[in-house]
UniProtKB/TrEMBL annotation:
Positions of the UniProt region annotated as Disordered: 78-98
Lineage: Bacteria, Bacillati, Bacillota, Bacilli, Bacillales
Functional description taken from the UniProt entry: Allows the formation of correctly charged Asn-tRNA(Asn) or Gln-tRNA(Gln) through the transamidation of misacylated Asp-tRNA(Asn) or Glu-tRNA(Gln) in organisms which lack either or both of asparaginyl-tRNA or glutaminyl-tRNA synthetases. The reaction takes place in the presence of glutamine and ATP through an activated phospho-Asp-tRNA(Asn) or phospho-Glu-tRNA(Gln).
InterPro entries recorded: Asp/Glu-ADT_sf_sub_c (IPR036113), GatC (IPR003837)
The protein, known as: Aspartyl/glutamyl-tRNA(Asn/Gln) amidotransferase subunit C
Native source species: Oceanobacillus polygoni
SUPFAM superfamilies: Glu-tRNAGln amidotransferase C subunit
Enzymatic reactions: L-glutamyl-tRNA(Gln) + L-glutamine + ATP + H2O = L-glutaminyl-tRNA(Gln) + L-glutamate + ADP + phosphate + H(+); L-aspartyl-tRNA(Asn) + L-glutamine + ATP + H2O = L-asparaginyl-tRNA(Asn) + L-glutamate + ADP + phosphate + 2 H(+)
């Protein structure tokens, strides 16, 4: 088991601005030690010849090509607008008068 002390747990809790009871410190010592033991088991694996990865799946970005195309004009956009002013759509106010 990794040697995590109560003082280390209390110090990290203090740095993180966490209030921990003595009972929680005991529990955290056990849990953090178990986590470190598991991580140390991973160091025993033979990873020679294994290429590092950032993701387990081979992900590719599939975005469309950015090609210019015809868009409607401002006048066409405002043609069916119920209300517009100075080149903007006008909509009812959603904030109450307070």
């Amino acid at each position: 088991m990794a040697d995590i002390s109560k003082e280390q747990v209390k110090h990290v809790a203090h740095l993180a601005r966490l209030a921990v009871t003595d009972e929680e410190v005991e529990q955290l010592v056990d849990e953090l030690s178990a986590i470190i033991d598991y991580a140390e088991q991973l160091n025993e694996l033979d990873t020679d010849g294994i290429e590092p990865t950032t993701h387990v799946l081979d992900l590719k970005n599939i975005m469309r090509k950015d090609e210019p195309k015809e868009w409607i004009t401002q006048e066409e956009a405002f043609k069916n607008a119920p209300d517009q002013q100075d080149g903007h759509f006008r909509v009812p106010s959603i904030l109450g008068d307070s």
